Amino acid sequence: MDAITQAKWDKVAPNFDVMAGRGAEDRWQPxxxxxxxxxxxxxxxxxxxxxxxxxxxxxxxxxTAIDISSKMLEVAQPRLAAYDGEIQAQLMDVHDMSxxxxxxxQVFTSCTxxxxxxxxxxxxxxxxxxxxxxxxxxxxxxxxxYYPFKSMMNLMTILTSKIGPDMNRTTVANxxxxxxxxxxxxxxxxxxVKIIKAVNPC
Amino acid sequence: MDSRLYFVFGDLAGNVLVGLLxxxxxxxxxxxxxxxxxxxxxxxxxxxxxxxxxxxxxxxLFGAMEVMLPLMFTGMVSGMVVGMWCAMxxxxxxxxxxxxxxxxxxxxxxxxxxxxxLRGPRTYGTEERS
Lengths: 202, 130
Known about the structure:
The structure holds two protein chains of two kinds.
Chain A: H1 3-12, H2 16-20, H3 22-36, E1 43-46, E2 62-67, H4 70-82, E3 86-91, E4 104-110, H5 119-129, E5 130-141, H6 149-163, H7 171-177, E6 181-189, E7 193-199
Parallel strand pairs in A: 1-2, 1-4, 2-3, 4-5
Antiparallel strand pairs in A: 5-7, 6-7
Chain B: H1 5-29, H2 36-62, H3 65-88, H4 93-118, E1 120-123
Helix pairs in contact in B: 1-2, 1-3, 1-4, 2-3, 3-4
């Protein structure tokens, strides 16, 4: 377990819902509901956090969810209890997952790979636990390719990486570098907030 | 950009507010005769900081990246325009604030236009990217 990352997210857990709460979740709700409506089979949800995404999950699913922060999972308990389905929340680092190879049909992430310290390694771990032909669905914010947004996000990352996420990640390139085959990249806001769909090649 | 009115008016009001504040700050800080290049860099930085500070309360209400980037962009542009104007000629506080607010309006409309061009899906085939 990456103790530094764990401590960082444990520290922000009590105030996380205020910082990342209503505005972003309300704005992203329709897109997330559409993305998560693809859930079927054996599902891994990466970085459950305080469970802000749970209300956008379709009912009646059985989902394995992991997070690196025990404090985040504590805050998530009421949302886990309210879900009309089954979510098995586990304390786990994406770099060091205890699941066997080829365990899942689908992996979902939501604003996760801005915070994973070694994103390509983390994505390779996701490939390992995904069955061949399994699907990766990501709702992520990334860096921008366009000036002045690119410079702004590089500047912001100097500040935000100390307390939370990086703003300038190249997540689409990382997905390909990890060996996934891209299926779709859907820009929701500029080229910053996006949905990425990829498959684990057979 | 989100077409729901709550977010449209939120984005609009937030950017106009940041532009107005940055315009007023430029009037308060910059003196006539300041070096133009220095003033441009300085007021752009001030504007981005103001945008960033106001992102925290406005972001809770209206979103994350969709609020942060436009506010910083507005801060940068209104700081540059009004700051350089203040360095060139004496203007009043109301005029500086008004043109800062206009910059905010122009910036959020520009972001909407850029977003319309960039948003949407791009699909990839198994052999060939489209």
